[in-house]
Amino acid sequence: MLNNVRKSFISGVAIVLLLPVGINSAAATNEPKSALEVKPLDERYEDSFTIGAAVEPYQLEGKDAEVLKHHYNSIVAENVMKPINIQPEEGKFNFEQADKIVKFAKENDMDLRFHTLVWHSQVPEWFFLDKNGKPMADETDPKQREKNKQLLLKRLEKHIKTIVQRYKDDIDSWDVVNEVIDEYAPNGKGLRESPWYKITGTDYIKVAFETARKYAGENAKLYINDYNTEVEPKRTYLYNLVKELLEQGVPIDGVGHQSHIQIGWPTLQETEDSINLFASLGLDNQITELDVSLYGWPPRPAYPTYADIPKEKFQAQADRYNALFELYERLDDKISNVTFWGVADNHTWLDDRAEQYNDGVGKDAPFVFDPDYNVKLAYWAIID
Ligand code: GLA
After folding, report:
1. What are the beta bridge partners of residue 339?
2. Which ligand 1 atom minimizes the distance to the CA of 175?
3. pLDDT at 18 (0 to 100)
4. 29 lines ligand 1 (CB under 6 A)
5. Which residues does 36 contact at the CB level (< 8 Å), separation at least 6?
């Protein structure tokens, strides 16, 4: 498949060179082809894994919805199922937006991932305040610390129980905890020193999985999700933690690899080794937040607009996608789902990141569909 892509690219370049200055090269060389007119991604990979996309509720209508129905057989909420949205105030659960996503998945016979029961970010402050409004993490009295710990674990259990009881028949895989590893953590074990950790140690992780299992049942699929799971030392920190938890009987079914990656990073070998490593513990793997940024780290300089992105960049990205999906397919007995962290290049969190590092101006383009829902070279690279 790569050869075809390369050939059309080379002939594309030849045509561009003959064009008078001022004509948009991308438009002139490649007739845009709508994502709705091409073979569905989920059909292409149906023998290997489900193909998902992260969505906001507004994307469940219009062109996004059409593309979702055509190409994806799995979805996940980009934001509305995070703790800050579901329980912004203690005891006040807000399921309105989350319900919309559940309904859409049901109506369109799609799998649904839950993201995320526990996280240190996008979590309301009240979780970590004691009854007097004082941050529990600052408490020094040992007796009060123990009380605080029990209070926080109770709050955690209630949060999880309420959500899981509501959605247990609708969710195919649960991100139970997100980003509990921090390779720079002062404890030297890679355990993120979030308020969760400062107040409960690693007990919050155990309680989260046990509570999810208790209410979701034996068949529920429970994941520990993180970024940079391919690279050392993070990979080993995550492996050590998961292994220890499994030995203690904590019910973990799989590892979610966020996979916010770049064209040249991490290596394919690292990616393969990581999947195999977690599979060696008897765990499933899911690729949960895939996007292939055009940039390195930090994302600087960035192209100011989509039209500024040169074709070579899109070609390099397509080559990367090609290699990546070849790998995923080869390892498909160890991977059950591949989810993109968005639908098309018109909506990606990476734009915010590019803007942040480039004085408010910067565009990224991490997916296989362009901002107008036309297919990119990356699409052809992964569809065969
Ligand atoms: C992490 C989280 C996602 C999302 C992305 C980017 O990867 O897991 O929910 O917030 O960051 O914003």
Report:
1. 52
2. 8
3. 36
4. no
5. 66, 67, 70, 373
Interatomic CA distance for residues 313 and 327, integer angstroms: 21
Nearest-angstrom CA–CA distance, 205 and 246: 12
Residue 74 and residue 361: Cα distance in Å, rounded? Answer: 32
pTM of the model: 0.92
Type of residue found at 191: L
User: CA distances (Å), 100 to each of 106, 206, 219, 341, in order?
Assistant: 10, 30, 24, 18
What's the DSSP call for residue 307? G
- Tokens 């219009």 label which residue? 62
Q: Are 130 and 140 within 8 A, CB to CB?
A: no
C-alpha span between 40 and 43 (Å, rounded): 5
Nearest CA to ligand 1 atom 4: 78
- The reported pLDDT for the residue numbered 384 is 85
Give the contacts of 347 (CB within 8 A, at least 6 positions apart): 56, 59
Query: Which single residue is written with the structure tokens 């948009």?
Result: 24
Task: Indicate whether residue 349 lines ligand 1 (CB < 6 A).
Answer: yes
Contact 156, 150 (CB under 8 A): no
Q: Which residues are catalytic?
A: 179, 289
CA-to-CA distance for 174 and 160, rounded, in angstroms? 11
| Atom 6 in ligand 1: residue holding the nearest Cα | 349
* Peptide bond just before 142 cis, omega within 30 deg: no
Among 16-25, 79-88, 167-176, 374-383, where is mean pLDDT lowest?
A: 16-25
Amino acid symbol at 213 = R
- The enclosing H or E element of 336 equals strand 335-340
- In the structure encoding, which two tokens stand for residue 358, read together? 């480039």
Q: Is 34 helix (H, G, I), strand (E, B) or coil?
A: strand
Amino acid at residue number 304 = P
56-86: pLDDT as tens digits:
999 999 999 999 999 999 999 999 999 999 9
Q: Strands 74-77 and 260-262, how do they pair?
A: unpaired
- DSSP letter string, 337-354: EEEESSSSTTS-HHHHHH
| Number of neighbours of residue 269 by Cβ within 10 angstroms | 10
CA pair distance 189, 209, nearest whole angstrom? 20
